[in-house]
Amino acid sequence: MITPALLSVTFRSLPAEEVVRLAAAHRLAAIEWGADIHAPPRDLDAVRRVRDLTRAAGLSVCAYGSYFRLGVQVPGAATFPEVLAAAKVLEAPLIRVWVGNRGSAAISDGERQAMVAEAQEIADLARQEGIIIATEWHGGTLTDCAAASLAFLRAVDRPNFRTIWQPHQGQSDDDATADLRQALPWIVHVHVFSWWPMAERHPLAFREQAWRTWLGILTGAGPMAAGLEFVVQDDPACLIDDAALLRTMVADAWSARVSSGRG
Prior knowledge:
Elements: E1 2-7, H1 16-25, E2 30-34, H2 44-56, E3 60-70, H3 80-90, E4 94-99, H4 109-127, E5 132-136, H5 146-156, E6 161-165, H6 173-183, E7 187-192, H7 208-218, E8 224-228, H8 239-259
Parallel strand pairs: 1-2, 1-8, 2-3, 3-4, 4-5, 5-6, 6-7, 7-8
C-alpha cells in the first residue's frame, strides 16, 4: 500500500504549522520533514515541535530529509550521529541521504569504496535504532543512473540501506520505467513531481500517465510513502489539484492490484 504524503521542502518558505495544515487539508497522510529549514538536526526543540505538530494533526512522519552527504566533508555540517539523534526525536522511520556531490562518471573507484564503507557504518548505526537509510536517486551524485545506483546498493549490502526513487530530469518515461523496475527491490519511498523536460514545473496532471504507470508498479513493492515534491511557482493553491490527483492515482493503483488478485 502506498501512502500519499508531502515533502516539507515543497514549501520551504512557509512555517511548519502551515505545512502541516496544508498536508492535513488535502488528505496527505504523512510528511517528509527536511533538515534544511523545518527540522535542523542541531535544533532538537524545532524537531520536537514539528513532530508534535504532525502528531496533533493526525499525520505521521514518513522520512527525514537530512541532506547528509556520503563522501563529502562540508564545514559546519551536522555529523551523522547528530542527524540520527534528530531522526529519533522526529520518530522518522527513514533518513534520506545523498551520495557524493559529483556524477558517477567523475567518482573514482577509491572514492566509491570509501563511500561504501561510510554507508555501511551509518547503516549499522541506524539499524540499532530501527531506522532505514535511503539514498536520493538524483543527478549530480553517484546515484545519477540505475547502473551506478544499484551497484552501490549491492556493494553496501545492508538490509536497512535502500533507496528513494524519482525519475531523473530529462529522462524519457520508458527509460525511467526501466530504471524503476530494476530498482524495485530496494525502493522504500518515492518523490512525486511533474518536471519536464528538465526543471520546468507543471501540474502533476501534465505527467499523469507516466505516474499512473510508476505507481502501478510501486504498489507491488510493499508499504511506502509517495511524497509530493514541489508545485508550480511554490504556490500552495497548486497543491489542491496535485494532491487530489495523487490520492486518486494511488487508490486506482491499489484497486487495480486487488482486482487482478494480487492485492
